[in-house]
Each structure stands twice: as C-alpha cells, then as structure tokens.
C-alpha cells in the first residue's frame, strides 16, 4: 500500500528466552528468563542466566543486584557506525524510513500473560488448528520498553507478530478490505492533520479488526456486508479514542492508548473522527486513492440508522416539512409562460438585503423553476431549428435555477433534460454527482432522525442557518413531474396519464442511470444499475413512507427489467407494485402486466 514501509524481523539465535524456571543445559546457548511481575502488561524483563559469554554480557545492565539483558544496548549492537541507519522504536531503520529491521528474541513457549486468550473466544474465529499453531510458535521479544518507565532500558515488548500473521491469513476478502480501507483512511486523511499525525498507527486498526472478528460470526464478513462491516470497525475506532482504551488482542490488560491518546490531542482527534464519521462510509473518498471510484459501486449496501432523536424528529416532521409542503403546493398553480414571473423572482433575489428573505426567494423560485422548465417543448416537430434552439437555451437556464430547493432533485431534473436531448454522457455525469449527495446526514421526507442528524442540527453553524437554507443543504426531496411534462423520459409517459407523478429521487437516479447506459449499449453498466436499484428498493433507502412512492419504485424497477429483457422479473416487480398500492387509476403496474402478457 502507498506509504507503507518494509518491516523485517530477524530472530537472534545465540540467546534463548524461556518463560518458566526450568534449567537449560546447552553450553553453547545463552539463556534469559522472562520476569513479568513488576512490569506493565505486554512487556517483560529478561533476567540473564549463568551461561553467558563475555560478548553477550556486554549487552547487560545491572538492576537491584541482578543482570538483565538491556534492550537499549541490544539495539546499539546492530547499529553500524555510518549515518545511513538510525534507531526507530524497536527497529533499525534506513535514513529514508523505507526499511525497518527489528532484531528480536524468540520464546518458544506460550506465556502466562496471554493464557486467557486460549479459551476466551466462544465463536468459530479463530479456528482451533490456527490457535494451536499460534500457541505452538510462542512469542517474540522486541527491544523496546515502556516509554517513561524508570526501567525502560531493560524492558522488552512481547510481540505476537507471527501469530497475527497467522490470524490475517485466515481473513476473508471482506476482512482484508476493511483493514485496507481503515489504513487508507488513517494514512491519507487522518494523519494529514498535523495534530493527529502521530497518534494512531495501523497496529491499532489491526487490533480492532481482530476484536470484532472474534465478536461476530464469521459469515457476517461477506462482500455484500462490506460497508456495514467497515462502518462498524470505524465506530469501534472512535469508541476506543473516546474512552482512551485500545486493548491488546492477546493481552487485554495492556491498554495501548494509555498515556498516548489523551488531553488536547485526544479532543482534536475525536473531532476529526466525528467529522469523518458524519459522512458514513463515504469518508474514505477523502483519500485521493479512492475519490475517483465510481460512486454507484458503493451504493449497494447501506446500513440503516437505528438511533433516533424523537424531539428533533417531531420538529422535522411538523414545522419544517409543513413549510416545505406548503410552498411546494403553491407552485402547483399553472403559471403563464410569460417570463415576467421568472424575471420578478430574479429581481427579488438580487435586490433583497436580508439574507433569510433572499434564501426564501431563492427557494421559492427554485421550486417554481422545477415546474416551469417542464413546460418547454424540446422536440416539437412544428418548430424550426432556430425556435428549438431558443427553447433549449431557455429550458437549460431555468433548470440552472432549479437546484436551490434541495440537494438532489434539482440536479436530477437537469439530468432528465440532458437525457431527453440525447446527451447521455452529460446526463451520466450529473447523475453521478447527484448520487454523491446521498450521504448519511441528508434528510428525507418524514424519515426517522439518527444521531448524526441530531449532532448536525445542534452545531452552531447549522443553528445559524434559516430553515430554507437548511433544506438546500440537507433535504433530499422526491421528484415531481407535471402533467404532460416534456422532461420525463419517454419510458415513463404512461405514468403521466392520470396527472402529476411523484417518485423517490434515488430510485429515479438509478433508473435514469440505467436508461442512459441502455441507450449507450453499455450492458454491464445496465446490470450494475439494475442490481443497485433492486438493493435500494429492498432496503427502502431514502424512499418516502408513502405507499404510492413505494409502489412507484417497484413499478420503475419493472420497467427497467422489462427493457433489459427479463420479463419474468419485470412481472414480479409490477405485481409487487400493485400489491403495495392496488389503485388502477393511479398505478399503471396492472396495465403494464397486461401488456407483457399480450406480447
């Protein structure tokens, strides 16, 4: 991975370490016995036994009348006299920091400090044979003590590196991806903040993955759970920082955050982590390694929020939505096509000095433009090219004013414009941008509030904004097509027979995405869009609780499936739509079912 160095561990064979008091008799080997009684968990002192050569004795330090192998002197023994290498923690590192070599010792027996790990896990991970292999290998001792300890120079850290490699070799692909994403987030995003650059390391992330792997069943780590698993790991990282506790996987008594993640540094780090967490899984897109990935690839699986804030939700579902619905209903008036209304709206916005009123005028005009733009005939056979070009530019300019009443639907109406004028590539760019707006902090009509929404609405920067300004930032409204709209795709013309038509924005986004790829003959992308659309509908993600909106979601899915040639799946989708909303007048699914049967 980018930014990673090469870590090499070299086991020194002329010194043998053992954990018990059993006497050794090999005269060609130097022995050290582990002492852990008066040392922080996860560390040890190495008491030098009698069979010691004069050379190895130089590496000893006396403490309380006993000779211990010094970790500080041990490292110096392998440091050459040139300036090309330096001591870096327990390692000898080259001057460029590319290679870290740790000269270590091997204890071939399992140690008492980690004895509880053998029987701790009640789940199937790690498996019995893997545990036995780890226990059989024992542990390594690396030359570094507890920072600030009076005995730091004679202390050694107990390393489970070999055992950890064995554990990682059992990881599913999803576990590996979660680990990789966490490392990318750490290296490319978190560590870029000066205050946070040296607080976290990838070992902490690996430890978190180990703990979660032991806690949840192995079958959870599967590809279609990648996002929930990643979010779970990221939440655990935040929890560890919040409580300054990251327990070593093999020796939980060793809190690796002790005397490290605390004070002002901890507050700053927590603030950065909370901010990243507010973006959900999309926080990884702040990394330039991942920011260019196709957004729709990540939309397949969305973990539902379960924490609700009732008081804020009540306000959301009453005052704010009532205002929005009231303004939206006013725009149902059939405005004359004269440009005077549009010009008057622009004038009110430009001449208003009070920001709250300026936002209100902008919001109102944007809602009006969403309806007005649909009245422009873009492909009339009775118009000449000059008139069509004028209509095209007028509609385009109106639609650019249509993006200020919420975060998504205005952009999707612009995408519809490009689709209707057969500019499919332009439409795809707009759709991808709108899909990137479907972040976890966005609000949909009458949805349950999560802890993210609660925290955002309590931020001072949010409290200072007017209601209509908040809608522009946070609202994901549904798509509304006027009767005989010129912007609705031809594939949906049947839906317009009974008046205005409404659909979930995210459902419409993926449906329009599918249509663009369908006309571009991109078969693979069509299948990807269909798959994601099915998942979004199944998860009821950002879909209004209104049964009409839900039924239209299945109806739209059925149309896409029918276009792709899967009539049986399309039939099931239409039937599901009619079961949700069995209204022949407002739901065309039964009519479409009859048409399929007649083919």
Structural summary, described in words:
- The protein has 599 residues and is an alpha+beta fold.
- It has 3 domains: 1-159, Beta Polymerase, domain 2 (2-Layer Sandwich); 171-293, Orthogonal Bundle (Poly(a)-polymerase, middle domain), CATH 1.10.1410.40; 295-545, no CATH class.
- The chain contains 23 helices and 15 strands.
- It has helices at 54-57, 71-77, 117-120, 128-137, 161-168, 173-188, 202-215, 226-242, 263-277, 310-330, 340-351, 355-372, 385-400, 409-420, 424-435, 451-458, 460-463, 467-474, 505-519, 523-538, 547-564, 567-580, 589-598, and strands at 6-11, 15-18, 30-35, 43-48, 60-63, 66-69, 85-88, 91-94, 99-107, 139-142, 155-159, 443-444, 475-476, 479-481, 501-503.
- The strands form 4 sheets. Strands 1, 2, 3, 4, 7, 8, 9, 10 and 11 form a 9-stranded mixed β-sheet that branches. Strands 5-6 form a two-stranded antiparallel ribbon.
- A hairpin with a 2-residue loop joins strand 7 and strand 8 (91-94).
- Helix 14 (409-420) packs antiparallel against helix 15.
Can you tell me the overall shape?
elongated
Which residue ranges are poorly predicted, with pLDDT under 50 across at least 5 consecutive positions?
A: 294-338
Helix content: 40-55%
Radius of gyration: 32 Å
**Backbone structural class:** alpha+beta
What is the helix tally?
Answer: 23
Q: How many beta strands in the DSSP annotation? A: 15
Distance between the termini: 54 Å
Strand content: 5-15%
Quick check: average pLDDT? 81
Number of domains: 3
State the major sheet.
Answer: 9 strands, mixed
